[in-house]
Design brief:
Elements (H helix, E strand, L loop, with lengths): L6 E3 L4 H9 L6 E2 L14 H21 L8 E11 L2 E2 L6 H11 L3 E11 L5 E12 L4 H10 L19 E5 L2 H5 L3 H10 L13
Parallel strand pairs: 1-2, 1-3
Antiparallel strand pairs: 3-4, 3-5, 5-6, 6-7
Length: about 210
């Protein structure tokens, strides 16, 4: 084992990687999990996020166990779900999906749930669920069409990216902003640090 424990991010999301980099962490490897993210029938948003984060962590652990260089690493997995009431919005891939999400979110409150799952070098699992409440302004058809044309929505939960143009739609946000981007930093660092990962090791390299 090296002096510094290794960190594997169980995601291919550039947003999650950028958030980790923001706080001085550079994962030693990315192990995006090929997990079916379709919600189960009647599944509540928080249950769905927890289930998928654990599934991604499990898949990454299986990959890491087969890699001599990474065995014994910390693993960080996450899943973000956008919901209106009990309804889970899709990760929009089609124009119609994105437009439907934006019309549903227009002028009302919604919730963003991110479940994070940390696997320790001893292969114990630690999990937390973070909830942020977001309110959008009332969107005009011009807003919706302009946002669709931007393409920024593609592949994003709920059909929008708060760190981009859609930040101008947000009237109010209660809770963790980084949670809405895709990785709640306070809770992620608290989980990793609580299990012995040196979360401040890269701070001298930031900025």
């Amino acid at each position: 084992m090296s002096a510094r424990p290794k960190l594997v991010l169980a995601s291919g999301s550039p947003r999650r990687l950028a958030l980790l980099n923001q706080v001085g962490l550079e994962p030693d490897a990315l192990r995006p999990a090929d997990v079916d993210e379709t919600p189960k029938r009647g599944e509540l948003p928080r249950v769905c996020a927890n289930r998928l984060a654990r599934a991604k962590a499990d898949a990454a652990l299986k990959s890491v166990q087969l890699d001599d260089d990474l065995r014994g690493s910390f693993i960080l997995a996450a899943d973000t779900v956008v919901a209106v009431g009990r309804r889970i919005l899709p990760k929009a891939e089609l124009v119609d999906e994105a437009a439907q999400c934006l019309r549903l979110l227009s002028g009302r409150n919604h919730r963003v749930y991110t479940a994070i799952c940390v696997v320790t070098p001893k292969e114990t699992f630690r999990q937390r669920l973070i909830e942020t409440r977001v309110r959008f302004k009332r969107l005009t058809e011009e807003d919706i069409q302009g946002y669709i044309d931007s393409g920024e929505w593609r592949g994003k939960a709920g059909g929008y990216a708060v760190q981009g143009i859609a930040g101008s739609f947000v009237v109010k946000l209660v809770g963790s902003y980084s949670n809405v981007v895709g990785l709640p930093l306070y809770e992620s660092m608290a989980l990793l640090g609580g299990e012995g990962f040196p979360t401040r090791a890269g701070w001298l390299n930031v900025g």
